[in-house]
Design goal:
Layout: E1 6-10, H1 15-27, E2 33-37, H2 40-50, E3 53-57, E4 73-78, H3 86-94, E5 98-100, H4 109-117, E6 123-126, H5 134-142, E7 148-159, H6 166-178, E8 182-186, E9 189-193, E10 199-203, E11 209-214, H7 219-227, E12 231-239, H8 242-245, E13 252-261, E14 267-276, H9 281-295, E15 306-308, H10 310-313, H11 316-325, E16 329-332
Parallel strand pairs: 1-2, 1-4, 2-3, 4-5, 5-6, 6-15, 7-12
Antiparallel strand pairs: 7-13, 8-9, 10-11, 11-12, 13-14, 14-16
Helix pairs in contact: 1-9, 5-7, 5-11
């Protein structure tokens, strides 16, 4: 499907936005992209490196985003925190697909309500999961051999020097101020956990165990509802990654443990490490790019208006293939 209108990437000069734009450019050399940021010089630098891209300034305090009425777009990506939801409203008024990654589980209510109130306006992809939903898709890929899933446990390690740029750091700070509790599914009940109940050790790929805790992340309800698993938990640790301990660049590491039964009813368990030698940034960029590709109809059927999550739109097998292409390793333990 040929695209003549440009994808508007709000926060396009940041790590997630610029990274996603670079992935889209590799896949679709002629896809028009608009890099929107508060600093026009930074946006122009990203646009120049991409080619077939333009740079604009953006004002999140204005309902029209401060954009010229002479331009029209094919989709809107919020690769930053838009606390007034002007980007979402801008997309809805124009019937454009919209993707966001910075709302988090504790902040998605306004997006969901806005989408429900105008359910026929355009598709909204809520992708404020860890790494824009890639861990959920990798877990669903690991779950393909199960007939019934009883437990899913995710353990993610984020290097302390790989938290992200200013926008990513601001997101983490904002979420931590809202709640220190984690969300788990236990015996089919979504439950908030805090204190010792939230604490957990998270094993790195080299066997080092880092202190971590359960967090309030969209991955938990996404995995629980996609698989029917009555027990789901996502533990998160920030510390020195295995890559940095080896004297190499920071790495991103996720362990996926699944328990259940196979099609014969026999017990089945699987454990897999998913890792990237360049940290979480390539995953987040890929997650955003996959969402844009799907929303634009560049792959798959047209997306219906309404609220969507990554696992509702993306094929786990395809996502894992794309993850491997960018250097992700998968190791069964």
């Amino acid at each position: 499907m040929e695209q003549s209108k440009s994808v508007l990437i709000m926060g396009g000069s940041g790590q997630a936005g610029a990274g996603a734009a670079a992935v889209l450019r590799r896949w679709y050399p002629t896809l028009p992209l608009t890099i929107a940021a508060r600093d026009l010089d930074r946006a122009q630098q990203v646009a120049d490196e991409l080619g077939a891209a333009t740079a604009v300034t953006i004002d999140l305090q204005r309902s029209d985003l401060g954009l010229s009425t002479d331009h029209s777009y094919s989709a809107v990506v919020a690769a930053l925190w838009d606390n007034r939801l002007h980007g979402l409203r801008y997309a809805q008024r124009r019937g454009l697909p919209y993707l966001s990654i910075s709302s988090g589980l504790v902040e998605i209510a306004p997006e969901v309500v806005a989408g429900a109130q105008r359910a026929d306006a355009a598709p909204i992809l809520v992708a404020s999961h860890f790494c824009a939903g890639l861990v959920v898709l990798a877990a669903l890929d690991s779950a393909r051999d199960f007939d019934r899933i009883d437990t899913i446990r995710i353990g993610a390690v984020l290097d302390e020097s790989d938290i992200g740029g200013p926008a990513g750091i601001a997101d983490l700070q904002r979420w931590s101020e809202v709640t220190s509790a984690g969300l788990v599914r236990r015996d089919s009940i979504f439950t908030w956990v805090d204190g010792p109940d939230a604490q957990a050790g998270v094993a790195s790929v080299d066997g080092t165990v880092l202190p971590g805790q359960s967090i309030a992340v969209l991955d938990v309800p996404s995995l629980a509802l996609a698989t029917g698993a009555p027990n789901v938990r996502f533990d998160f640790a920030v510390g020195e990654s295995a890559g940095r301990r080896r004297g190499e660049p920071v790495s991103a590491e996720v362990r996926i443990d699944i328990e259940g039964t196979d099609p014969t009813g026999a017990p089945l368990t699987t454990s897999r490490y998913v890792a990237h030698p360049a940290g979480q940034r390539p995953w987040t960029a890929l997650g955003v790019a996959l969402g844009v590709e799907r929303l634009l109809g560049l792959r798959g059927e047209p997306v219906a208006p309404g609220i969507h999550t990554p696992e509702a739109l993306l094929d786990p097998v395809y996502v894992v293939e794309r993850m491997a292409e960018i250097g992700t390793t998968f190791e069964t333990v």
